[in-house]
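Handout, section 4.2: multi-component inputs.
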Amino acid sequence: MAASPLVKTTPVTNDIAVEIVGMHKWYGEFHVLRDVNLTVRRGEKIVICGPSGSGKSTMIRCINRLEEHQQGTVVVDGVPLTNDLKRIDEIRRDVGMVFQHFNLFPHLTVLENCTLAPIWVRKMPQKQAEEIAMHYLTRVKIPDQALKYPGQLSGGQQQRVAIARSLCMSPKIMMFDEPTSALDPEMVKEVLDTMVQLAQDGMTMLCVTHEMGFARQVADRVVFMDRGEIVEINTPEEFFKNPQHERTKLFLSQILH
Amino acid sequence: MSDQAIGSRIAYVRREAGPTRPAPIMTRGVFAWVRENLFSTPMSGVLTIGSLLFVLWVAPDTFRYLISDAVWQAPDGVACRAPGAGACWAFVAAKFEYFMYGSYPRGETWRVDVTLVLGLALILWLLIPRLPRKGMAAFAFFVVYPVVAFFLLRGLEGVLPIVETNLWGGVFVSLLVAAVGIVASLPLGVLLALGRRSQLPFVKFFCVVFIEFVRGVPLITVLFMANTMLPLFVPQEWTPDRLLRPLIGVSLFAAAYMAEVVRAGLQAMPKGQFEGAMALGLPYWKMMRLIILPQALTTVIPGIVNSFIALFKDTTLVAIVGIFDFLRTVETARLDPVWAGPTISTTGYVFAAIFYWVFCFAMSRYSQMLERKLAAGRRR
Ligand SMILES: Nc1ncnc2c1ncn2[C@@H]1O[C@H](COP(=O)(O)OP(=O)(O)OP(=O)(O)O)[C@@H](O)[C@H]1O
Ligand SMILES: [Mg+2]
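Output:
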């Protein structure tokens, strides 16, 4: 298929955080993402859901180039993604990412986890970085764990550290890839509360999650993916009350009993 | 109420905490230790008794040979040649300086001593976790010390008399070769390991070829090649010193093995660590230096130290290209007609074995201590 005509244009308006146009991706012969189009405005909260293997993780990982797409354009904060490593690092600085398995650095304390990138990437003086880290650790309600190692914390606490660690880079966009699905049930709430608070503060968020309560509460739009395609996008009210596509209905009937 | 009575009831709620009792005597103290470790099964019991008998059989003769029948003081080999005499420690004492310094001029050996003490102090500073300012220690040891050591040992026109490297020898040269090999092989090995995993085809190709080639030939071959081929690559007046050549050979050889050890550590790193670091915008080298290598190297400390130990013992092979390392000085000294006798060779070799064992054992213990320390509190 021909490349999208929008390839070279950068968004004119400045209120677009992420713009994905005609994105395709293959793993070898396997077509994982097929013609994905999505525009995220600044301050918007998007929840992405869909069956396992539908390409949700792959899509958001294309936004910060943890995965490379082969066709189409991805523009993040006005900067189109290319193979330029400098530019990729720049984008990654502004796009925070929280993973299912936290990916904290086990050899560093919680505080060091949070100050590492500000110090080494943003060239912030150590003292200032520590102040900022303590600020965010306080916001996620674990300032007293700052000097422990990640391995000494519960899953929920680790995930909140991971959120604080991303926030320390003052990202413009936050992405979450199933942040609660590796947690014990009693810890899910503390992480979701943190995310709700972040949403209320006006952060632009893309969340892959199956927490439908969270989607109802904070999402501006819900994106439903299946077999590498975006099948349906709608406001949460319409999405849950009035799903249009057969596959959406099937999916919702399976997760909401 | 007995447990059985409780267990057979349909409903039960514990109202008060159960009592705490000391563990039964059979599971505590020396008795339990002996039972668990020495006589846990009939087979284990048989092995314990067998080993004990073996030790009892060997120990008295060993003691007699090495200690009670040994000749501790003698001006020459006559006493050692007496029938029934044990180890000839007098020989070691007489040759001690030669074992330590080779043919380094006797009046100048203080320079070697100073270099060794200085190096040892810096190594201790680096290795003892409690001592502060590791950055400065590393700078002193890796940058300042080699220069100082070079001029101290080699000499400086007009200040210290020059001592050519063909006079260097003994323990001093063994330690020198080992230290240079260890210090050079780790960073080189890390670079090769990273290169082998690189996305850049040329870098990857070079590293794979280098590692596989060097690992595929014996160290002796590498030493011969370094000895004869290095001079061919550089102009005549730049010909590397005859001691420098095996130093380069040993370093490259050790680096290839180190690369594979480090690669194993990199392979064991979860993908999430790379992704977590990349998602924060850390560029490649910072990610490697701050996140990946500290963890990868920690997991392979046993392998790294194993390489160091192997390297330390392999330094004996430099004798093949004419370097008088410690073992070679023992070899030479035992042929001295003043001392020649039936026990001289054994004494020399036992002395050498003790020397190598002490160093290797110390390295091994240090690595175990380091592992325990690093493991504490950093469990994933
Ligand atoms: N590195 C890879 N190589 C080949 N195939 C891959 C790779 N990573 C993912 N896939 C495949 O791509 C598809 C999409 O994967 P992705 O992880 O994006 O799904 P997902 O929607 O996030 O699913 P889940 O809910 O299970 O996390 C899956 O079929 C998966 O098997
Ligand atoms: Mg996923």
